[in-house]
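Memo to structure team: turn this sequence into structure tokens by end of day. - J.P.
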Amino acid sequence: MDIGFKGYPFTWKNNQEGQRRIEVRLDRALCTAAWFAMFSNTIVFHELPLDSDHNPLRIEFEGLKSRTKTPFRFDARWLQKEECHEIVNRNWDAVGLCEDRMRKCEKELETWAKQMYQDQNKRLMEIQKRLEEILLNDRADDIIEEEKCLMNELASIWKDEELFWSQRSRINGLQKGDQNTNFFHSSTVHRKQRNKIVSLKDEDGNLFSHRADISSHVTEFYHSFFTKSDRIESSTIQDFPKLVTQELNDEMCIMPTVEEIKAVVFNLGPTKSSGPDGFTGMFIRRFWSRVGPDFCKEVQGFFHTSIMPQGWNDAHIALIPKVQSPEMISQFRPISCCNFRYKIISKILASRMKKWLPGLVSEMKAAFTRGGMIQDNIIILHEILHQFKNHRNGDWDMMIKLDMCKAYDLVDWECLDTILEAYGFLEKWRGWVNACIRTIKFSILLNGSPTESFFPTRGIRQDDTISPFLFILMSNTLSFLIDKALSRGEIRGIKLNQNCPRVSHCLFADDTVIFGKASVNEADHIQRILRHYGEVTGQEINASKSSIFFSKNTPEAIRNLVTNKFGFPPSICHDKYLGVPSEWGRSKKETFQFLLDRMEKKGESWKSLLLSPGGKKVLLKAVIQAIPSYIMSVFLLPLSLTCKMDSILKKFFWSGSMKKKSIHWCNARVLEKPKEEGGVGFRNFHCSTCTYW
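Reply from structure team:
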């Protein structure tokens, strides 16, 4: 496996300048998974070159050692032990809130588990030693019976180990029946190494390398980032139509029953990342008969008082690198990990809102609404771009593609509450929502250990079940402002033909595209709309990632005037929209080459070398074959491309690599047969893309 690196991304250059300059990463440090398990704090640094065209590598075997205690995590293996059930039952008999009882369970479970697995490791060594002795001696009947017992005990220990590493690997695609302990373990250590933060730089170039300094810098950055700005204006949303009826309010504000709460608990993912309390859904589901009534009582108490129970809304922020070898905190993506018990409340609110959402938002919003499909927006965009390319006469048209900067994180709470009130939601419902978003306590996970906690004053969490629905309602303000300007004749939109309705914009979550006439006057009106939208919601447009595309007949002078007014770069529209290329030329194969690159990258992953043939088959079917499915649902892929995809899949199945030749032991058609007919069950990519058409 590749240990990874910190610092400059390349290790060799050809000492040329301009377009002739070439830089690649040729030098790297490799190790086995077993070695890395022993020296998991190893870090490789790319140093500056002196008289060579290669960068020297500096390897530190200690790295950044954390002396802080890692948070408690409920272990799936404990559910198989009778002692775990006894500990939970004993501590749940105590008087107090769920928070207090869970803390008591946590302390006793940690003490018990530490001693138990120390004893289990000793027992594992004893079993292996005894089995070696048995294999070297004569095999009498009593010895054979002892061997069977020892093998069963050894299999139980191995099953525990596989369950432990599968829980920590975050891998969901592999099924039971194939022991993938090495794969799960390697996935875990590789992810941990990739996400490790050794040092950070601030905007002034100051380097922080000690944990205390990094912790202070990270906490200060996110505390400032989640602090509310002073800009808020509600005048533009006062004439919102009240779309929430009395019937809707009555249904939304019903007290949840025990049956509804139980259905939510067993619908949420039991193995998803836990929050600060460390208890996953599998704990509550397994012990539902014992702990369920108390959780139901506190959940119903929240809906009665609108007061969040103590500790329920605490959350960790995990930092996921957005680039390879990040150097600044802005190059990490913050993902919050909520407590499972909070997710119960959030899921109840989200489930009720989901039913009524389509009637509350614009028909141009397709995200998270029943009947709304992401493919609709893609097809509409491609039809309009096709007209842009062939538009030689008539009015000049333009398309503005907006990128919102940190859309969820910049949501203003006051504005959100004002919008919910404008829709007609009752104060009771808004009180529940405000309790969910305003009582959060964050702490940053720095290399697995939490930093000092803080309270945000703006933003909604991306992993919170209710967040997408709240964001849709808030961003529907933009649809309202655009539709209002369209009705006044301030903007024109686009009409593909006489029988089509006018299309002024397309929205999917925070992806926004606005269509209009390419003129300075219309650009002024759109700018005013975007400025008002930002003032009332706190949203900010990322000008560097936004772009403008013009119809073919638009004069160059008009293009320059409109582009300069917005400050967005002009686009030739080769970028992507909702993960799909906006347009292509004569060769579809070149346009969709990124699918082949993505499949090859997955196949060449070092983790795949640790898979057994059975595990390899499951990985191919669950991951590799799923990569082009989204594109296939929108476009018919060319035969030459699907044949290449089939070749990649078959080659990886037989050799475990994209670069290593091997014997194909049967015809490719045999692999595509169903398992019942003696095949493997791989789908033919050409047949798959044809099924959508």
